[in-house]
Amino acid sequence: MRLKPLAFGPLAALALFAVPALAADAAPGEVARAYDSEYRTDTATLQLAASGEEGNELEYHVRMKAGSTLVYAWSVTDVPAELFYTDFHGEADARPPAPEVSYREGLGTAAQGSLVAPFDGLHGWLFKNDSLKPVTVKLTVAGFYDQLSLREAMGIAGPEYLPFGPADWPDRYGPVQKR
After folding, report:
1. What count of other Cβ atoms lies within 10 Å of the Cβ of residue 84?
2. What one-character DSSP code corresponds to residue 10?
3. pTM of the full predicted structure?
4. Residue 102's closest CA among 112, 88, 91?
């Protein structure tokens, strides 16, 4: 590890104490990662119906390999925080199927964070609108993952999958924009 001077003059020696303890203890592979897969960024605009109507909840997933990283941010407007529920969760590619693991669950109108996938499988969100009017969720994900078909992303079982992209989303789910 190479230290860079943080200060000059009589207090320069004190600058050595400002280096975080993690830098001395952590191996380089623990703080920096390289990936074989392509980095990507996707933004989805998701329309959810009012509470009590069909379409007031939606699952959105991406497929990730264990150790892959995802950074995300989502927000919803024009709804009280206590009326919008989310569950950020994962489902392992295990046979027989393993139980779903919840990473973050609760009420609110926005969240951002990251995930290092603990296992190969689907990772994503359940968004549920309990308000009396339709809402729009804006979700941005970036990192190392495979984008799923619309049917897979929504958790719909079946042998045929729709391609995932703006031309293939039903009108109520809005466009997906890849940056």
Report:
1. 21
2. T
3. 0.70
4. 88
